[in-house]
Each structure stands twice: as structure tokens, then as C-alpha cells.
Specification:
With 156 residues, this protein is α+β, with helices and mostly antiparallel strands. The chain has one domain. The chain has 2 helices and 7 strands. The strands form 3 sheets. Strands 3-4-7 form a 3-stranded antiparallel β-sheet, covered by helices on one side.
């Protein structure tokens, strides 16, 4: 009498291994996206710190050229004197470009109706959570939304 495994037993083992490997790969993917979200939070804090140093030195936040659809990121870097971080999944290669989801944006206005350089917004998205995308400017009657984007504004 020979001892060994039947074809059915081998197929069951292969199926179990396949299911377990799928679960492991899925968990790793979620861990990577959470790590990218943590990197985004660190990046935003770095940008905020640079903006606050600029404000202390100049009495206002940087006023960069922008259109409704894009921030001039290189101009912001020049104003701050540093190379700013990029989103870990920067899909366009152009930080500050819209549409999102994976870019950082900056808004800082010099117009009298837009806070005279005393307010800013940093706009970004995460992979694992969704924000409402609206928050007040320096004036309570000036609000705006960016879809699912998270926003950080100047400290009050």
C-alpha cells in the first residue's frame, strides 16, 4: 500500500494557500496606503511650519500667482526658500495642479476681500478617509469647498 496525497487533498491545500496569500496582499496594500496618509500629514505640517516662518519674517503669508485650477508651486517654493514635499502618489508631476486626488494645493490671497495675506489654505486628499472639503476663510462669510479635499487654514 502506497502512502501519499490525493489530487483532491492537493487542490484543497493550493486553494487555502491562495486565499491566505490574497488576504496578506490585501493587508499589505492597506498598510501602504495608511503609510502614505501618514506621510501626507507630515508633509502638510512641514508646509505649515514653512508658512508660519515666512509669516513671522514678512508679516503676511506668501501671495503666489494661481488660477482657479492650479497653484504655482515653484513660486511658492521660491517665496519660502525651500523645496516643498510632494504627495507620495503625485500623479501629474506638477504639485499644486488640479484636479486632485493626489496633489497638494496652496491658496493665499492679497486681495482686500480675501484677507490681505493673513490667511491661507493647504488642500490635500487622503486615501483612507474623506473630508467634506469646506472650511471658513479668515472671514466667516467667505467659505468654499473642494469636494473630498482636506484643508488646513492659517491659525487664528
Amino acid at each position: 500500500m502506497k502512502k501519499g496525497f490525493t489530487l483532491i487533498e492537493l487542490l484543497v491545500v493550493v486553494a487555502i494557500i491562495g486565499i491566505l496569500s490574497t488576504i496578506v496582499i490585501s493587508s499589505l496594500s492597506q498598510a501602504r496606503s495608511r503609510a502614505r496618509d501618514a506621510a501626507r500629514e507630515r508633509d502638510i505640517k512641514t508646509i505649515q511650519t514653512a508658512l508660519e516662518v515666512y509669516h513671522l519674517d514678512n508679516g503676511h503669508y506668501p501671495r503666489v500667482n494661481h488660477t482657479y485650477n492650479a497653484t504655482n508651486w515653484s513660486e511658492l517654493e521660491t517665496a519660502l526658500g525651500i523645496t516643498l514635499p510632494r504627495d507620495p502618489l503625485d500623479e501629474t508631476g506638477d504639485p499644486g495642479a488640479e484636479p486632485y486626488p493626489h496633489n497638494y494645493g496652496y491658496r493665499g490671497w492679497s486681495s482686500p476681500s480675501w484677507c490681505l495675506g493673513q490667511d491661507y489654505r493647504i488642500i490635500y486628499n487622503k486615501e483612507n478617509s474623506i473630508e467634506t472639503g469646506s472650511s471658513p476663510w479668515c472671514s466667516s462669510n467667505l467659505t468654499g469647498g473642494y469636494g473630498d479635499a482636506f484643508m488646513v487654514t492659517a491659525p487664528r
